[in-house]
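Worked example 2:
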Amino acid sequence: MARGFCYLVGIIDVFSRRLLAWRLSNSMDVRFCLEALEEAMLRFGRPEIMNSDQGSQFTSLAFTSVLEANGVSISMDGSGSWRDNVFIERFWWSLKYENVYLHAYEDVRQARQGIGSYIEYYNRERQHSSIGKLTPEQAYEQNDSAAASSAPPSAGVAPGSAELASW
């Protein structure tokens, strides 16, 4: 941005590379991380495991208690171990080089709009060689359909939500 900083959190499905939820904030408060987590779980169901780095937002009682209350196993990267979170790190690289650095947003509102447009493109149009030249949305839906047809629905998972194994 022309002046100041903003902070972005994203919840990504490791299997499909689909960004399930995201939030942008002008502060590093835990609230925007909780909003993204709650949206992802509401729209796509409860994951088996949530992996994150050791940032204060993700180690906070507010964040971890939501995961624990929903029976989600918590996995945190080791110090300096980027490989543990390589899928979201790769998304951050793509977002920066394919969008943010090209647009130099003036303010948070403009950044939110531009990043939102990029995420729509990333999920719906951008093909990935690592998932057979599918878009993240296609891979997610394909995996969700395969999982739904091969097993009875899990108790407590809303119809149409992600199977837990896809997270």
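The beta strands are 7-12, 19-25, 49-52, 73-76. The radius of gyration is 16 Å.
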